[in-house]
Structures are given as C-alpha cells and as structure tokens.
Design brief:
Blueprint lengths: L1 H19 L7 E3 L5 E6 L3 H9 L4 E7 L2 E6 L6 E3 L15 E5 L21 E4 L9 E5 L2 E4 L9 E9 L7 E6 L5 E5 L8 E6 L2 E6 L9 E9 L3 E6 L2 E7 L10 E5 L4 E10 L5 H9 L1
Antiparallel strand pairs: 1-5, 2-4, 3-4, 6-19, 7-8, 8-19, 9-18, 10-15, 10-19, 11-12, 11-18, 12-13, 13-14, 15-16, 16-17
C-alpha cells in the first residue's frame, strides 16, 4: 500500500513538474548537487544550452561566470530564491522543438542541429525585448537566409518575436519555400493592411490575415502553425487571431528559407520551429519565456 501511494505521488509530481517546468524562472538557484549531471566550463551560454540538449536527462541549465551546470528535471524540487542580482536561468526544451535561434550575446547560432544562416549582410545585433544588448537582430533591408534543409514535414509551429521599425508593404518576417511553389510565409503588411500568414501548395494559396493592426516599435510574438495537415492557426502574443483551412506541407527540401526580407526593417529574436502544432497552453507557456 505504501509503495502504491509513493508511486501515485511520484506520478502526480511528474505531471505537475512537466507543466511547471515550461516557465523560465529568474532569480532562482539550485544548490542540491544530487541532481547535478555535470559541471564544466563554456565560453558562451549557447554552448552550455547545446550541451543540455544533447543530454536527454538534462532539465535545467545554470550558466554563470562561464561555468555550465546541467541538472536533471527533479532538481526543480530543490530550487531556492537567490538573493543576489544575477539571474539564474533554467531552460527546458520541448522534445518537439527542432530548431532554435536564441540570439544572445553576439551569437546567431541555431543550437539544436546547427542550421545556420548562410548570408550575413545589412544586419546588426541590437537590444532584445528585455533590453539585453547584442541579443536580437536588426534587419535593414535584408533577410537572413538559412541553409537548405527539410524544415517542415506535415504539422509544424513557427514562432518569432519581432518589432517592426517601418511597416513596408509585403515586407517578410519569415519564409520557407522550395523552388516548386511549396511554401510558408509570414509578411508584416499585406494588401488588406494587415500582417498575414500564407501557405502555398501545388498552385493553390491560403491566406490568414491578423485581426490586430501592428504598431511600429512594439514587440510582438508571432506564431503560425498547421495541425492535422490542414488546419492553419495564426496567433499574436499568445492569442489566436485567425484559424482557417490550410494545405498539407510536405517534407520537401526547402532551398529558400529566411527570416526577414529584401525590404524588411525590423528587429527579430528567439526564433523557433516545432514539429507539431502547439496547443494554446504550450503557446502561452512559450509566451512567458
Ligand atoms: C558574451 O560572450 C563573450 C565571448 O564571446 C564572453 O566573454 C562574455 O562573458 C559573454 N557575456 C555574457 C553576459 O554572457
Ligand atoms: C527598455 O528600455 C526602454 C527605454 O529605456 C524602457 O522604456 C523599457 O521599459 C525597458 N524595458 C525593459 C523590459 O526593461
Ligand atoms: C537540400 O538541397 C541542398 C542544395 O540543393 C543540398 O545541398 C542538401 O544536401 C539537400 N538536403 C537534403 C536533406 O536533401
């Protein structure tokens, strides 16, 4: 009986933990070395995060003074508030996250599979939405082009934090296409005066316009997704703005994928791609991070 209860408690705890862990917490530290997986030196936080991603037991990372500590998920039980001003970050990645460009401290690196940008012109590092320097990218009439890959297959979610410096007609936030008209697009401003999400497939096109009018100089969290190969969702700041009938996005080698565009003047940050349509709860947890 006692074992049975312990088991139940443990399972409840895991369920609770998994939803709790999605929130990034600041001003916390983990002192319990029982849950420490490894401790090593890293020159950059992205390197440290990458280490965690390669270790399936890793639930948390604390990066401080070049020291990179990886902790298991249960370490959360031993968190304590830290009294100093340094922020201790815990980061948990969903297994459905396939690509992530955190953009931090002069690094543009994609930290999961090194899907890196192949052009680097007319952009610079700038402050992110937390005012951290060199932790977002400012595009001045250019796009950052990704190496050709199979970025989507069936369902997906793409999310980007972005702030427009100028609302220019048909300026792109994100696009991922092949040479045969199979593509997904987010533009900041379309003919109807709104940002829109488009899917192109086999000569057909689907467009979902935002309801909200974008303002210059304001950070927004853009999310597009496709569920069950056919339902397209467009979210802004964690709220669903539009839903519609999309098109199946096949796993083609996408040779033209980019953030920004030739006429884009905007700041972008924290780009992520998932291999499924995230639920509203998952999206709202992402918003908080
Ligand atoms: C930023 O990166 C440089 C090396 O590229 C490192 O020396 C510095 O400590 C890092 N700063 C922060 C705040 O992580
Ligand atoms: C960032 O700086 C601007 C201008 O100094 C300020 O208005 C804003 O509140 C700051 N934001 C944060 C998150 O600290
Ligand atoms: C995609 O296409 C590029 C360029 O044509 C090629 O270098 C790359 O190997 C292809 N990738 C895959 C996964 O097929």
């Amino acid at each position: 009986m006692r074992e049975f209860l312990v088991l139940i408690t443990f399972n409840l705890l895991i369920g609770y933990l998994e939803s709790e862990l999605l929130n990034m917490e600041k001003n916390l530290i983990i002192h319990n070395s029982k849950f420490l997986i490894s401790s090593s030196l890293c020159n950059a936080k992205t390197q440290c995060i990458s280490k965690c991603l390669k270790n399936s037991n890793c639930g948390f990372v604390i990066y401080k003074d070049k020291s990179c500590d990886l902790f298991t998920k249960l370490a959360w039980l031993y968190r304590t508030p830290s009294t100093n001003d340094i922020i201790h970050k815990r980061i948990l990645f969903s297994k459905n996250l396939k690509y992530y460009w955190p953009i931090e401290n002069l690094s543009l690196e994609e930290i999961i599979t090194q899907a890196n940008f192949i052009n680097k012109e007319k952009w610079s590092f700038t402050e992110d939405r937390f005012n951290s320097s060199n932790s977002a990218i400012e595009l001045n009439g250019n796009h950052l082009v990704l190496e050709p890959r199979i970025y989507f297959n069936d369902d997906f979610t793409v999310m980007v934090w972005a702030k427009v410096n100028e609302l220019i007609l048909e300026s792109s936030l994100f696009g991922c296409l092949n040479g045969l008209g199979e593509g997904v697009h987010i533009n900041f401003l379309g003919g109807k005066g709104k940002a829109y999400y488009a899917i192109y497939s086999k000569g057909s096109a689907m467009f979902l316009d935002l309801v909200t009018d974008l303002k210059v100089g304001v950070w927004y969290h853009f999310i597009i997704s496709l569920e069950n190969r056919k339902i397209a969702y467009f979210y802004l700041n964690g709220k669903l703005e539009k839903i519609g009938q999309g098109f199946y996005t096949s796993g083609v080698n996408r040779t033209s994928c980019f953030f920004g565009g030739h006429s884009t003047r905007a700041v972008l940050d924290d780009m992520k791609m998932f291999n499924k349509a995230l639920s509203i709860t998952e999206i709202q947890n992402e918003m908080k991070n």
